[in-house]
Amino acid sequence: MIEILNPAGVARARVSGALVGDILQTIRSRATVGTNLLEIDEWTRSLIVAAGAESCYVDYAPSFGRGPFGHYICTAVNDAVLHGKPRDYALADGDLLTLDLAVVKDGVAADAAISFLVGDARPPQGVALIAATERALAAGIAAARPGARIGDISAAIGAVLTEAGYPVNLQFGGHGIGSTMHQDPHVPNAGHPGRGYRLRPGLLLALEPWVMADTAELVVDDDGWTLRSATGCRTAHTEHTIAITADGAEILTLPTSQPGAADSHWPEVATPQFWEERYAITDRIWSGRVNRVLADIATELAPGTALDLGCGEGADVLWLADHGWQATGVDVSETAIARATEAAQTAGLADRVRFLAADASTLASPGRFDLVTASFLHSSAGAPRSVILRRVADWVAPGGHLLITSHAAPPPWAAGHAHDHHFPTPAEELAALDLQPGDWQLVVAESRTRATASPDGEPATLEDSVVLLRRNRPGAAF
Fold it and tell me: What Å distances lie between residue 323 and 107, 294, 295, 373, CA to CA?
């Protein structure tokens, strides 16, 4: 059965989806080294009951499982990838944990999954697996628009997974969703463009790329449910429920922003006063080094004109100018702009830069740019972050690039302060941008790990979410 929801049904799906996203985000913030999988199941039960929703899993008894599932969330660790049945296991540092959750609220279901590494360890293989599924999900969502076909989504997902070097298993994949969790159409994680069911507004799909590091073969645990890689290799799985709308795909299972999240590391709204108070603390609050993501990507581009949004004390702008770009920096803080201007003069780059003290939500367009970059940008007093990013996307010249870098997770030394803050995945960044697919080409959508030092000088790693888009020239095909 393929259900097409009316606008009222899609509105109810947004509520179900937000609940799923919020529960997953809450569980992720609580799960740490020593957390038992059965604790996670109990936390999930409590959150579902408190929201007045129903679990899709407790009584679920499909042909491929052994009896009713009997739990509220799927918890797959390391070599487990799908249908992970919660068990008496305490998470260890570096474990790769996948949480998969589906609930029904007000008669509409929503389904999503996240994979992440537990604790401080960041095994490279685990980081790469998670990043591949996130890129694949972003590509699938970008391909989901009215008039496209299921094969277009499958081909987009499969191309990313194959390019990353992973075998693709076609036994399980995405699916339609609506009044029940699993519906037609099936959405394989590889396929052929132009084939399959034609997408139309009101269709809900759960897209879920998943991979195993070195095999496409699954084995079933003795519990009759948990599916593991046949070789014991690590796995990852990422999923969102989306709605097809007249304008493209809308991600329904994003976490909602949490009122009262006022931690100074990640304010939901960063006012000029907030930043002036931060800059007043010391003569310099940033390292003065270029953002590593920007340097890696800009090095591969032909120098031209660049705009750095939220430029702070100007390190990225000065780096761009020193590498042949004519660079503009915008920041809401007058103190930051004054420091950046002075730094440009000291470096002998004043003729290649300009700095503007302004709120980008109200700033008149300062021109068209070959590169617009926003690194770790906050919402302003004038508009939410997503609105600002959509606005400045219009300032990218045809053939130019838009680069967005954000935190994918809190720094290890600040994790205790970040439980109420949501860190967007690349797929969520793309969905929030809501750009016209035919106008842009997706170049990069992935999480990247980089080495750094904590405030006390200890070695540490940070996770960044990176999205790079190229604006099509008139007449170019997407």
Answer: 56, 12, 10, 15
Distance CA 133, CA 164 (A): 10
Cis ω on the peptide bond leading into residue 185 (within 30° of 0)? yes
Gap between the Cα atoms of 232 and 461, Å rounded: 26
Q: Is the distance from CB of 195 to CB of 146 less than 8 angstroms? A: no
What number of other Cβ atoms are within 10 A of residue 229's Cβ?
Answer: 23
Closest CA to 377 of 451, 470, 268: 268
**pTM score > 0.85 for this model?**
no
Domains of the chain, start order: 7-251 (3.90.230.10), 272-471 (3.40.50.150)
pLDDT, tens digit (0-9, with 9 covering 90-100), for 83-134: 999 999 999 999 999 999 999 999 999 999 999 999 988 898 998 999 899 8
Q: Cα–Cα distance between 318 and 321 in angstroms, integer?
A: 5
Specify which of 129-138, 251-260, 299-308 reaches the highest per-range mean pLDDT: 299-308
Instruction: Give the pLDDT confidence score for residue 329 in this predicted structure.
Output: 96
Q: Residue 280 corresponds to which amino acid?
A: A
Residue 286 to residue 258: CA distance in whole angstroms: 27
**Dihedral over Cα of 197, 215, 75, 128: its sign:** negative
Q: Of 180, 237, 88, 53, which is closest to residue 45 (Cα–Cα)?
A: 53
- Are 396 and 307 in contact, with CB atoms under 8 Å apart? no
Q: Please give the Cα distance from 388 to 382 (Å, whole number).
A: 9
The pair of structure tokens assigned to 191 is 């396929």
